[in-house]
Design brief:
Blueprint: H1 10-19, H2 24-42, E1 45-48, H3 50-65, E2 77-81, H4 108-115, E3 119-124, H5 158-165, E4 171-176, H6 182-188, E5 191-194, E6 214-219, H7 222-232, E7 262-265, H8 267-270, H9 278-293, E8 297-300, H10 306-331, H11 338-345, H12 352-375, E9 378-382, H13 408-412, E10 416-423, E11 429-435, H14 441-455
Parallel strand pairs: 2-3, 2-4, 7-8, 7-9
Antiparallel strand pairs: 1-3, 4-6, 5-6, 5-10, 9-11, 10-11
Helix pairs in contact: 2-3, 5-6, 7-14, 10-11, 10-12
Length: 470
Amino acid sequence: MAKALHDYSIAEAGKMLRSGATTSMALTEHALERTKTIDPLIDSFVLLTRERALAEAAAADAAFANGIDKGPMQGIPHALKDIYGTAGIRTTCHSKLLIDNVPTEDSVVAAKFKAQGAVMLGKLATHEFAIGGPSFDLPFPPARNPWNPAHAPGGSSSGSGAAVAAGLVRMAMGSDTGGSIRGPAGYCGTVGLKPTYGLVSRRGVFPLSYTLDHCGPLSWTVEDSAIAMEVIAGFDPHDPASADVPIPDFRAKLGRSVQGLRLGLPRHWFIKADGASAETLRAIDDAAGTLAKLGAIIEEIELPDYELYNACGRVILLSEAYAIHEKDLQTRPLDYGLYTYLRMGTGAFTSAADLTQAMRLRRELALALNAKLKACDALITASTLTPAPAFADHDPKSPPNFPVQLMPFDVTGNPAMSIPTGFSANGLPLSMQIVGRAFDEPTVLGIGAAFEAATNLHVRRPAFDVARAA
């Protein structure tokens, strides 16, 4: 029995496009119709660029007909978190402050997808300026979790996680400063890859923290994240953080055995963490067992305390976020959502000594992690510590504190990928992280693909009460 069009991965859809079994127009019209039907339930899009998408689909089909193949994303619908600048298309950061902002240039990532003939379906919900949310006092409603819309999808790449999980797009771009790709991936049951710091240009993406920001994909399969990385990775001399390094073959280790790989497991980080659910912990142990059965060698390791990484990252993030927003926070404070204002405002009280100590500690923590990775091929650890929390559980007077363990690898810059490990008793996704050496995304992706193939979790999709969206 043939699958629905939205259930074909980028890799599968690409083969169909090249064989003539489908067209970009068919993929795009299906995605637009599915978004029209389902998105009113989950609010993942803040802007649907219908006319542009149809025009780009027609152009992709014409290119294929003329024997022009620009790369694996040609003709594939995708979407961007609404902090990615798009020329002539509104980019709001989900904020009143930028509600009328229309950039004159594309971000580097948007330009790369356009150059390859990808089809942009639209712009996706985010927490305000990638930090404050989920909030109900912003110009657009917060995105909701496709597995249960009463629950949050995580943040700040909330719309990206929701849209991919719902099958509206196969891949969406997010950003990760304290876990904002991997958190939504974990809560929504998708793959979310935070690449090595500097591997993907951030130029044209609204910054949150200059020394912590990463751009990366959320996707339905591991291979689809690898394909996205093939498009977006590369040196940008105009991004001061961009790394001038050889670009790896991101699909080189897909399909390979994990036999003999040594995987470190810092179990002490999460086994007694506040708020960690028994289901999450059991799923991580089961995932480690699955990888062991596939031939990997699992070794428990000790790292510096998780809270050291978390505190270090928070000091840097909030200090830099305040520096970026200082003028608007002082002159237009009421135009921010409450959660954004409360979070960013704390950066005003961070001293130079605090920031200096955090930067010093950052180096020590990175050295400690990378010392372990000299003896291990990769690490596996917790991502989200519970299933997605319900909106009703949030205190409206203070920013939510999601129970996750994501910040360490923003601090160190190592590649880290969240992948599904199963489902809770109430049907919400569970997850773990795979962490690698700097610029060794192929190993991370290879381990993830082996686990994905062994568990087949990606064949299960959320069910929707479409009548409610009518």
